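Morning run. Coffee first, then this:
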Amino acid sequence: MLVPYPTWLYSGDNAWQMTAATLVGLMSIPGLAVLYAGLVQRKWAVNAMMMVFSAFCLTLIVWVLWAFRMGFGTPWISTFVGWPSDVIGHAGEQAQANIPLLDGDLPGFRFPEASLVYFQFVFAAITPILLLGSVIGRIKFKVWVIFVPLWITFAYSVNAFLLWGGGYWGAHGALDFSGGYVIHLAAGVSGFVAAAMVGPRLARDREGGAPSNLPFVAVGAGLLWLGWNGFNGGDPYFAGADASAAVINTNLATAAAMMTWIFLDMFASKQKKSSFVGGVNGMICGLVAITPAAGYVNGMGALVMGCVASGLVWVAMIYLPKHVWPFNKVDDALGVVYTHGCAGLLGGLMVGLFADPKMIIYLGLGKTPSITTAGLFYGHPKQLLIQAEAALTVIIWDAFVTFVILKVISLFTSLREPDAVLEVGDLAVHGEIAYAPEDDLVTAGISEGLTGGGPFEEPAELAQD
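And here it is:
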C-alpha cells in the first residue's frame, strides 16, 4: 500500500503554508512591480519592473544555496547568524521542516522543509524590493544586481536569525510576528542609507515626478493588501485560530490606517483634499505597523495601532523632509523610510504596549502552558524595553552593512546612472519603453531601432559606465 503523506505531515497545514507563501510572493511579483511602475514617471516603468523581478530571482538563488540556513539553521557566529549551507538536496526539500534553535519551543512542524524554505524566501525577497523604492529612478541596474545578493547575505540573514531563527533577540523575548523589524524597519533604514549614498534624482524629476498610472497603483496596492493575509496569516506556521486572528487584525489595522490618512488629508492638510496615493500610503502604514503584532494583539489593539501609526507617519512625512536633518538632505523617492521604516518601528514598539496575554499563539496541553505574550498595558513593561533594544540593533547593523556594501561597489563603478541616462530613462537603460508614444513617427523609429533596424544605439554621451 502507498500513502501520500509521511506520519508527521498534515495536508491542511502544508496547503495553507504554500498558499500563504504564494500570496506573499504575489505581493512582489506582480504587486510591487506594478505599484512601482505606476508610481514612477513613465520613463522609469520598465526599470522598476526589471529591478523587482531580478531581485526576486537573485534572492531565491542565494536563499537556497546558503542564506536560508544563515537565517534559520544551526548557530555559526555565536547567536547572531547561522551556518551557511544549501537546502537543495532531497532532505532540504522533503524532510520535516525544522528550525534547530526553536526545537521544543514550537509545536513540531507538520509540513516539509521545502514549504518552510519557500515561505521564508518570499519574505526575504520582498525586503530588498521594498528598499528599492528609496533609490528608484537613478541607481544603476548593474549595481542593483550585485547589491541584492550581498544584502540578503550580510543584512537580512542576520536579522532573520536574531529574531526568528532562535538567535539573540528571539531568545531574549523580542517579538516580531511577521517582520516589522526583520523586513520593514530593515528596508526603511537600508533604503535611506542607500538613497544618501546613491544621490538624488534629477531636480526636474523630483519636482515633476507625478505617478504615471494610478490604476496600476490601485492594482499593486490591492495585491499588497490581500497578499498580506498570507504575510501575517502564515506566520504561526499552522492553520489555527491564531492565523485567523492575525488575518482579521491585519485588515482592521489597515482599514483604520487608510481612513486615518484620508481624513487627515481632508481636514488637516493645506489642500484639504483626499488623494488616492495618500490613502495608499496610509494603507501601507497600517499593513506595516500590524505586521510585528498581528497574532499578539486583539482587535481593539489592531485598530488603535493602525490609527496611531498612520497619524504619526502622516505628520513625519510632512515635517521631517522640510525641517529635520538628515531627512531634508536625502531623496527617498517613495518615502520608504516613513511608510516602512517609521511604521515598522512604531508597530514593533506598540507590540510592547498592546500584546494581549489572552491571545493564545499555541495551546498547551496538560501541564504545558499555552504560549502567550504580554505588553506594558497588560502588566509587562519590560517588553517595551526589549522591543526598543532589538529595533536599535536592526537599525545600526543594517545601516552599517548597507553602507559597507555600497562603498565597496562604488570602488569599481559609480552607484548612480549618469545624468544623460537619467534624462532618457528606460530606453537608455534597457532599450524598451512601457508605453507606446502617441506620435506614429516616433513609434516607427523606436520599433526600427529595437527590432527591424537592429539593436538600439545609445548616443555617445550615454555609452559610458
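Residues 439-444, 446-457, 459-465 have pLDDT under 50 and may be disordered. Good start to the day.
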